Amino acid sequence: MAFTLVPLQLQFFRSGAHLTDHGKSCGSRFQFFSDGKCARMAGLLNWLLNLAKSVVACCTNLLGWNKDDDDDVGSSVSDPRLWDREELATCSHGQFSFAMVQGNPSQCEDDGQVESGPHGLFVGVYDGHGGSRVSSYCCDNLFPNLARIAQETGVLTEDTLRNAIAATENGFMDVVHSEHEADPNVTAVGSCCLVALLWKGRLHVANLGDCRAVLGRLNEINNRIEAVQLTRDDNVSLQDVRSEVLNAYPDVPDILQQVQGVWRIKGRIQVSKAIGDAFLKIPEYSLLPTVPRLRLREAITRSVLSAEPSMLTRDLQPRDRFLICASDGLWEHITSQRAVQIVNKRPREGIARRLVKAALKVASRKSGVTYDHVKSTTDPNFRRNIHDDITVVVIFFNQGGTYDATVPGLSIRGTKNENLPARFNLQGVA
């Protein structure tokens, strides 16, 4: 319907306007009508045209065609669960905007960080599940692991990032080992992990799970902005991911199970890659969680969830304009192309907040309520039925992908709207 009604709408408007013009000139074109009949005909056509406009406007709102979802005006109701870094921050490779919103009732399970230094920029988006323990652990430890490995080896490469993620995974497994007897549920906490690392004009992206990195790039043919998705959603709702999982675990019975029509690894988790989730990786923990919905029906004999990130490395190009890194709460409601269009046509200041609000407006409309109603509700469980936690970081590149080594260091962690002590200091690292 969405692909047929709009052309019909335009056709009706054009033909309606055409007929109205004919009605106004019917003295010359339709001489057999009296002036009264001409007036009545023109009035009828105008009434039908206005009716059609009202119907189309109604359908547009219901079906989500409102092109002003990203408008950041028109409401005096603030969102108590939305945080953003109010000013646009300057970093070595350009500028960035950062925003988050909590959807879960008791705590935000997302976490995120931006670390900037003279030669580089580190962005981490962590989408936790089962709690915030692993996402917070990633925020505390992944960048320090990266800095330590880079200083030990003297280089910062794709392998450095991969090894930093492995060290973070191993570190949390040590936590699980020390705490699982007192708290078995620590074995069932995990997090998706998306890292974008800009280092001396080169971009490294690592991803586990269904967070997404999307590049806004200028098309050299039509000079329009286009979305280039740099990561794959490691989610078994996708046929190719399910096929990959089945091929990787041919010896594991019921590796994929449907729960209420949704595919999940062992009936428990939708993503095929994550940090944490020890009960799906280490056999001795597979029957430990005390929460019934998490406990497996039978013990696993080997890991059924990967902690190996998907990697991408590329040099920044002159036509690369910006990068959006966000948790899946954004992409559930906003397409990659729509997101880059919003970023491209709106002011840079507060653009991460604008993307979050665009997603919240679409999510609210899908549920038959307004975003103002969502913001105003006092029911802690209501919002989770509308939207997930959402974390968004937008990085605008310097012209030509250059970097400024004189920019001071900066460290920002999501939900903390103040500068933390800068820790991106990698002097002597190539």
TrEMBL record:
PPM-type phosphatase domain location: 95-397
EC number assigned by the record: 3.1.3.16
Enzyme class: hydrolase
Cofactor: Mn(2+); Mg(2+)
Pfam families: PP2C
Keyword terms of this UniProt record: Hydrolase, Magnesium, Manganese, Metal-binding, Protein phosphatase
InterPro entries, sorted: PP2C, PP2C_BS, PPM-type-like_dom_sf, PPM-type_phosphatase-like_dom
GO terms assigned for molecular function: metal ion binding; protein serine/threonine phosphatase activity
Keyword Manganese: yes
Regions crossing the membrane: none
SMART domains to which the protein is assigned, alphabetical: PP2Cc
Family that this chain belongs to: Belongs to the PP2C family.
Protein name per the record: protein-serine/threonine phosphatase
